[in-house]
Design a protein that fits this description.
Layout: E1 6-10, E2 29-33, E3 45-47, E4 65-67, H1 69-77, H2 82-85, H3 89-101, E5 105-109, H4 141-154, E6 158-161, E7 173-174, H5 190-203, H6 221-231
Parallel strand pairs: 1-2, 1-5, 2-3, 3-4, 5-6, 6-7
């Protein structure tokens, strides 16, 4: 039996440390986002933004690779661009992995984007809640999750959330450590997806360099909110 090509993406939430115990044979590739390379030594790719401090970056072994904006911006552009994807590294890394590896599955752990702990809100202690910053690309995180799920499905890939936390901004089906779904996979509505993509095309919020904050053209916050609201309509409501 051929195992599906599965990518593990590790974020920085406190429960990301559970990734240490996941069976490496289940994964084709292990992508550590930002500081998550500290969690287990067998990661294959460490992906981080250009402004990550030098002392927080990993030192790769021979079998490991570092992924910077030179790689992830073009990959995100191929799937609509970082503005529509959502400019935070969990989504950026996922689109890069989807475009680069063409996986059958992407499994996420430590990427819930819930910061309800007044003390330690990252596995390494107190950190900045990047997805919650005031940014027009991050108005509805669940909508960005829906978008990723839709793009993955259209590329023959299933998104799974390995989190055991009660709340998550990810809208994917939960799964256990063996990658078995513990809930039904969301049912997506193709017509609503097509409407969202048409709205993106019409809005024209495309910045090939990825650094939209340095562009003279301001982002259209209201247009992006309307697009997010449309992405929220793509999942069939559960009974």
């Amino acid at each position: 039996m051929t195992l599906p090509k599965t990518i593990l993406l590790i974020g920085s939430a406190p429960d990301a440390v559970r990734a240490k115990k996941l069976d490496s044979t289940l994964f084709h590739t292990i992508v550590a986002i930002n500081n998550a390379w500290q969690i287990r030594p067998d990661w294959t790719h460490s992906i981080y933004p250009d402004d990550l401090a030098e002392d927080k970056r990993s030192e790769p072994a021979q079998f490991q690779s570092l992924v910077t904006s030179a790689e992830y911006v073009p990959a995100n552009n191929a799937l609509g661009g970082i503005v529509y994807a959502g400019a935070t590294m969990a989504f950026t890394a996922a689109y890069w992995a989807l475009e680069t590896f063409k996986p059958d599955q992407m499994a996420f752990i430590g990427c819930d984007m819930i910061y309800d702990d007044a003390g330690q809100n990252h596995f390494y202690g107190k950190g900045t809640a990047d997805p919650l910053r005031d940014d027009p690309t991050l108005q509805i995180l669940e909508a960005k999750s829906n978008r990723l799920m839709a793009f993955a499905k259209r590329h023959g890939c299933t998104c799974l959330n390995l989190s055991e936390r009660p709340l998550s901004r990810l809208t994917f089906a939960r799964a256990d450590a063996a990658l078995e779904p513990t809930a039904d996979l969301p049912v997506l509505i193709d017509e609503e997806i097509d409407k969202a993509l048409a709205m993106e095309q019409k809005a024209g919020q495309y910045f090939p360099g990825g650094d939209y904050w340095n562009d003279a053209r301001p982002l259209n916050k209201q247009a992006l909110l309307a697009i997010d609201e449309q992405w929220m309509k793509i999942v069939v409501a559960s009974d």
